[in-house]
Amino acid sequence: MKRDGKKMLRRVKTLRFLRNEVVLITGGSSGIGKELAFEAARRGAIVVVVSRNLEKLQEVAKKCLILSGRPAFAYQLDVTDPDQIDDVLSKVQHEVGGIDVLINSAGLGDFIPVVKESYRSMEKMVHTNLLALMYISRCVAKQMMDQGYGAIINMGSFAGKLPTPNSAVYSATKAGVIQFDNVLRMEVADYGVQVLTVNPGPIDTPFFDKADNDYTYRAHLPKWVFISPEDLARRIWNNVGYKTREINVPGYVAYLGWAYQVIPGLGDWAIKKFFDFQQDKKNL
Fold first, then answer.
1. CATH number of the structural domain spanning residue 78
2. HEC string of the chain?
3. Which of 19-23, 54-58, 107-111, 230-234 comes out lowest in average pLDDT?
4. Catalytic one of 170, 191, 242, 255
5. pLDDT at res. 281
6. pLDDT by residue (tens digit) across 133-158?
7. What is the structure's pLDDT at 109?
8. Which neighbouring-strand residues pair with 73?
9. Which of these, 108, 137, 144, lies nearest to 22 by C-alpha position?
């Protein structure tokens, strides 16, 4: 079927304002997901948040209702369960309406040497950070292609571009997100669907309390490196409805990633030096 490119472009541009647009956010009970929900509500969106913690979700939804003056919804969801994903997406479609913007922000990390990672830990990270994101994106992309417009925002990471010690599995999942988006973007572009990949450095959220509970990773990072989740949320929404492919925060992340590809040997040396990393007994 021939599509009206100008009409689809006009519809995508309406997402820049978010007013009355249906926004679905995974991992919406805390961290960057919560801040994205609040900022979307301030801009007049109809916010739908999903995560495993229903009590926290309901608190977020209540605040979104106050901020936007529009309905807000909370659905309990374990993103590693495809049957739950299908069920919740069906409920959203029938109870709220078609999804105009999807943000996959659910994620977890475990910053320890890869030789210490258990199979269960690796499996959980891959399922949560990558497989669930791909499946949810796939389901929602189909709906957006049918309706002729939409935006899919997936949270990658600077770790997907620049490797750091003690983050092998986490980095692998985020590199997978970046490459998945590169292909998805090509496949849905002619249907008026934007695919935006967000690659932030460390964000000042509870994520690090779980991923780096002994502070070995965080100890090497100065406080100024950490990104404000509120500022990041505003920046993400400011790029929805445009032709933006990636957001790299801080901006130098993209340049460091490029430099690493060109001179990886020097990159390995510099990264290990920065993190004071040695493969000795304490790391095994």
1. 3.40.50.720
2. CCCCHHHHHHHHHHHHCCCCCEEEEECCCCHHHHHHHHHHHHCCCEEEEEECCHHHHHHHHHHHHHHHCCCEEEEECCCCCHHHHHHHHHHHHHHCCCCCEEEECCCCCCCCCHHHCCHHHHHHHHHHHHHHHHHHHHHHHHHHHHHCCEEEEEECCHHHCCCCCCCHHHHHHHHHHHHHHHHHHHHHHHHCEEEEEEEECCECCCHHHHHCCCCCCHHHCCHHHCECHHHHHHHHHCCCCCCCCEEEECCHHHHHHHHHHHCHHHHHHHHHHHCCCCCCHHHC
3. 107-111
4. 170
5. 41
6. 999 999 999 999 999 999 999 999 98
7. 85
8. 48
9. 144
Interatomic CA distance for residues 41 and 70, integer angstroms: 8
Q: Which are the contacts of 257, defined by CB distance < 8 A and separation ≥ 6?
A: 158, 161, 162, 248
**What pTM does this model have?**
0.86
Closest by alpha carbon to 27, among 67, 60, 63? Answer: 60
Model confidence at 2: pLDDT above 50? no
Is the pLDDT higher at 191 or at 167?
191
Tokens of 264: 């990886």
Place of tokens 């979104």: 64
Residue 77 has pLDDT above 50, yes or no: yes
Please count the structural domains in the chain: 1
Amino acid present at 139: C
Residue with structure tokens 């780096």? 212
Highest mean pLDDT: which of 20-34, 159-173, 205-219? 20-34
135 catalytic? Reply is: no
117 vs 267, more confident: 117
Cα 68 to Cα 216: distance, rounded to the nearest angstrom = 40
Give residue 20's domain range: 5-283
